[in-house]
Design a protein that fits this description.
Rossmann fold; alpha/beta; 2 domains
Amino acid sequence: MNMRIAMFSDSFYPELGGIQDSVLTSARELGVRGHNMIIFAPAAARRDYVRANVPIAEVSLGRNVKIRRITSLPFPSSTLQSRLVIPTGRRWRDLAQFQPDIIHTHTFLGAGLEALIAARQLQVPLVGTNHWAVGEFSIYAPVGKAAFRRMSTKAVARYYN
């Protein structure tokens, strides 16, 4: 049985890293197996491709995988490439036409919130994988690093629960 799978991630190509590799590999392989995929990922600027030293073009994941770029802002990180999707709570309307069987979120930030809203509105199962220890990003907080670590860890647990 072929499925229609929607993926949401704040971490995506051209940013390079483990989360991005997981999303790319999963989507590509599921597409090869005949599943139809749509990935909601941050829009990237030319400078993001240049910084990552990759071709300035959308990554090709095969004929069964579509990428939908959505509004995003730069986000502090060790790669200096991260972007954060700006949640609108309306992307489920675009997704309704695709009629996903399942929604998979790879992050709990802006894209993750969009996935949660879409799953609830469309009454579609939501699965989530957490690929990073958010508390470790407290080093990027301008103030209140310990408070950021505590609050972010609780927020992630709440989201995935």
